[in-house]
Amino acid sequence: MNYIIDFERINELTLHPADGRDNSAYGSTSIYSVTKNLVKSYMEIYEDRNRKKNRNYNDEEIQEAIDILIYNKILISPADIRDQKIDKILEK
């Protein structure tokens, strides 16, 4: 199944207002560096799968990455989009 990548959600999870500020004499810091690395790792696995590049990921690792990205609302299925549209219509 193909999913849509929600880049706004990636930004929500990986950007912090203090990112890029000069908080010390040694330069800027990255507040969410662990989250950034995890999202990057899972997105690389997903993208490699889509490009048919097998970097020694087994099926379980690929499925785990997809499940985590779906759970964190980074990957959205067409059905999710449809459900969101229906919910908006019903709220009115």
Question: How would you portray this structure in words?
Answer:
The chain has four helices and two strands, in the order βαααβα. The chain has one domain. The two termini are 31 Å apart. Helix 2 packs across helix 3. A two-stranded antiparallel ribbon has the order 1-2. It is 58% helix and 4% strand. With 92 residues, the protein is mainly α. The longest helix is centred in the middle third of the chain and has 18 residues.
Strand and helix layout:
Elements: E1 4-5, H1 7-14, H2 33-50, H3 59-71, E2 75-76, H4 78-91
Antiparallel strand pairs: 1-2
Short description:
With 92 residues, the protein is mainly alpha-helical. Helix content is 58%, strand content 4%.
User: Which regions have little confidence, pLDDT < 50, spanning 5+ residues?
Assistant: none
Order of helices and strands: EHHHEH
- What would you call the structural class? mainly alpha
Instruction: Write down the Rg.
Output: 17 Å
Strands, total number:
2
Distance between the termini: 31 Å
From the structure above, extract its key features.
single chain, 92 residues, mainly alpha, two-stranded antiparallel ribbon, 4 helices, 58% helix, 4% strand, flat
